[in-house]
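Thanks for the sequence, V.! I ran PCI domain-containing protein right away. Repeating your input here for the record:
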Amino acid sequence: MSSSHLPATSESLDLASEAKTRSEAITILYQVLDNPASSSEALRVKEQAITKISELLKEENRGEDLRGLLTTLRPFFSLIPKAKTAKIVRGIIDSVAKIPNSTDLQISLCKEMVEWTRSEKRTFLRQRVEARLAALLMDSKEYSEALTLLSSLVKEVRRLDDKLLLVDIDLLESKLHFSLRNLPKAKAALTAARTAANAIYVPPAQQGTIDLQSGILHAEEKDYKTAYSYFFEAFEAFNALDDPRAVYSLKYMLLCKIMVNQADDVAGIISSKALKFLGPELDAMKAVADAYAKRSLKLFETALQDFKAQLDEDPIVHRHLSSLYDTLLEQNLCRGAEEVVCNQVVLVINSKADRSGKCSQGVGFLDKAANFKGVGCLIIFEDPKTDAIFPATLETIQNMGKVVDSLFVRSAKIMA
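Predicted structure:
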């Protein structure tokens, strides 16, 4: 036995697990992989060694070493079934994804693996790596490149009728078109994903993803009641799996409640379903619900400042903040109008948008005539009394018009 490698046996794996440091354990496991043995037992041990190396490198945030591991393993992949190769490659890519700030590395790694799978004619693995690459490109806002990749990939997968992968790709395409603000194509892609999902068994996590995307699209169309039901289904699926997306589904449920003027229900939902999810995401929605219930622009603006990451930087919530602000502005004006106790009153509303003239756009709901004067001042007057002379004058003018029309008709007959 060469000193550069160790036997591919369970004893060698035990030796690695007993190592005092991660670096020492990684060195031992690499020596196991260097063993040239190719028996079924040796291949099984090497697969276990690869899994352990990936975990240790991930814990040490050594993304480049994980990338090098994939390159080192290429000769080994020719000795094992293609299905196992796909499992190992996807597992290593998943390990890289768990390393912070590794998006660029993941994109580069996926592109390398796509080239290798093309040269090795491993279609099944290539399609899945390309789908992962398209998702990474979308997250990096490389929408044009991601759309080009998905367009060719979806045609190929439909031809092969791989419905499980087709569901993933259609979902990804829906998210991409939604990011590009193309709602009709986003809905069409989601419909295609549902159609493919109806023909096969869909894992709960994937079904939750479909429901989450459905809720997002319905919320975009202002159909918040339907969106709430979809977010609820997604929350139930993710919660059962302890998926971190459960808290986001719950967050969007609360947003829907606020948007349909049921902000008082938010506290009850949090206390009944979300005790284990308490944190800044739900605190942000509770602050918005409190501001809405109290019809306070000041509290709303404070919530936006205190929870900027959870509200303004969340692309889904951010899309509805403007509409919510306008609704709050109207509520704020209504509250001011309710306090009118005299014939003429000046309401001064402290808000940047109002000082710029925003409140003059929201007074159409008032039954009384309103006049916007100056900066930040809304002056409300009682309805003026109608003078009786105006209806009489209008009636006289109408009668004169009829007389003139009659004379015109008669003169036309005479001239004829």
